[in-house]
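Quick one: M18 family aminopeptidase from Billgrantia gudaonensis, structure tokens please.
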Amino acid sequence: MSREARLDRLFDFLKRSPTPWHAVAAMAERLEEAGYRRLSESLPWQLTPGERVYVTRNDSSIVAAQLPRGELESLRMIGAHTDSPGLRLKPQAAQQSAGWLQLGVEVYGGALLAPWFDRDLGLAGRVHLRHADGHLEGVLIDVEEPVAIIPSLAIHLDREANNGRAFNAQTQMAPVFLQGGEGADLERLLRDWLEAQHGIRDVEILDFELGFHDLQPPSRVGVNGELIASARLDNLLSCFIGLEALLESDGSQGALLVANDHEEVGSASACGAQGPFLGDVLRRINAQLGEAGDEGHIRLVQASRMISCDNAHALHPNFPDKHDAAHGPALNGGPVIKVNANQRYATNSATGALFRDLCREAGVPVQTFVTRADMACGSTIGPITATEIGVPTLDVGVPQWAMHSVRETAGSADVEHLTRALIAFVNRRELP
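--- reply ---
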């Protein structure tokens, strides 16, 4: 599989995934093309050895499982998350100011706000509606036209703009949507978009979850194309790499990919890593193919391993002092093992050793990140999954710049590096 073809697939996935719901839909489509069967959580499961299945929850989280051909003794688990920081539309969003209709937003997650100004913004998410016959349906929409913008204030009117001015998301970041707009009806616009995108007419819109997204497409950057730049690399890049590894594995071992929603806001939801989704799936798989009961479930979990994939902070050439001098991961320098003594990352020496051996086997370089001792450390689904499930876990990721910006940057070679390491993991016959 060529590196260029993989990057082409990555860019297509990023463009098709402006929201977690779109990301899960795109992942499900690829899984079905590869022969995976969709399961429903509300129906009985009938599983057979060697089968490949997937299940979603809230349409924004997904678990895909490659069941072993022999006895179910262990699983090679890859974890990621589908959500990214951004601007979500408020339920009663319309507001008027200076002759313009604007749409009020709520900041989702720890977004860098400054890069959102002066961007061509589209609108995407899901809409729930009632058809004329009374049945309810959730539908995805993606307005890929520049329907809004958050204009900056001219420096002539704010001479302190370059001196660290803070942004007020309530009063200063409502996107400009429609000139005039007196009596404008957002529901009418949603109806128009539903008809244009899905041919849906004569419905009642009951509710929606929508957010703005930058319309600039993903791109290769640098004289030699060393970089990739896109929205939502954190953490759709890990979702994509995990999916690639699962689909390119040899199918000989039991393996599982979980991509949870709501990591950027703490993971505390029914479909988040702190919720029961993964645990429910593991219990149902074990009940049919493994040793029944609590004893069998615990043995399966403890014999398995989880690699939590979430991007890492690369050494920034303009801010080298933000890294510990001995732990500055380089773009295109290989996947990064993330370590924190206070368990903000789940890595320990045993799981770290496994990943280093996998990288040796795959012939890819490997790096380590530890935050400065005088700075706070972020976290991932890794420690949460380890806490909720009990599976031995480590945290790794592709190094990147501008994490939580509307447009982030990573190394083009690192996509291949981490994919190869994860393929080696999924194909691994014996887990330590």
